[in-house]
Structures are given as C-alpha cells and as structure tokens.
Amino acid sequence: MAFLDSLDISGSALTAHKFRLEVIAQNIANSETTTNGRAYRRKLVVLSEIPNSFQKNLRDAASRLKTENKGGVEVSGILEDENAVRLEYDPDSPFANEAGYVEKPDINTVEEMIDMMSASRAYEANVTAFNAVKRMAQKALEIGK
At a CB cut-off of 8 Å and minimum separation 6, what does 57 contact? Predict the structure, then answer.
C-alpha cells in the first residue's frame, strides 16, 4: 500500500519537530548560563527534505524492491549562533576578562517562545496528517467487509 508511505513522511517530520522543540527548550533553559568564561550559544536546528525522486521510485517499483528512502524531513544540522552574546560588566566575576566584562548569552525568550509555537504547530499539523492517513486506511479496510 503505497499511500501508507505518507505515514513514514509524517513520522519523520514528527521526529524532526520534536527535536526542534527540545533544542528550543534547551536555549530557554540556558539563557543565563556562562561556563568557564564562555556564554552559552543559542542553537538553531536546520531541517531539510529527504529527497524522493520519481526515477528512484520507478526503479524500485519495477524491481519490486522496498525502498528505505520514501521522502520526509530530517535534521540536517545544528548551528550555533556566535553573535548571540552580550558583554556585561562584572569585574568581581571569576569569568570576567581583563576589562572586567563577562560574556552572557543574548537569547531573546520571546523569540524562542515564538519559535516553540511554530514548531508545536508544525508538530500538530503532522499529527493531523498522520491521523488522516490512518483513518483512510481504516475506511479502506471497511470496504472489504
């Protein structure tokens, strides 16, 4: 049943957006963290499409091989925002540089919450798509009764 392959696509997106939510939560949790004089750097998740070419599907169908790559979404990398650092004057801190400044993360929690809402909505959309395919499969099985 080829239409059930869309479950794999939605499943890969669910996994990717769950990971995105975890990274955003990590950014919020570490918005005031400085370790060994180095501020926590905001992390950004990069998502990319898992390509699903027509020619590959045609070859697989012709040879009746099951393909591992049915398309979907994957986490292609995690970037650190090197510019998300602010200097705060605190000469008494053990992490202060020679001028008395300490690196602090410059993480905007409002921006992180907006990113979290976006990832949450994308997750919900994929759950809806997953459930729609599941209902279609159930209805198709009922036709045979």
Answer: 67
**Cα-atom radius of gyration of the chain, to the nearest Å?**
22
Strand partners, 95: none
d(CA 91, CA 93): 6
Q: How far apart are alpha carbons 7 and 94 in whole angstroms?
A: 52
Full-model pTM? 0.77
Please state the domain count of the chain: 1
pLDDT in tens, 91-101: 898 888 889 89
Q: What is the pLDDT of residues 16-28, one digit of tens each?
A: 999 999 999 999 9
Q: Which domain holds residue 53?
A: 2-143
Phi, psi values for residue 50, rounded to 5°: -85, 115
pLDDT at 5 over 70: yes
Element (DSSP H or E) covering residue 112: helix 109-143
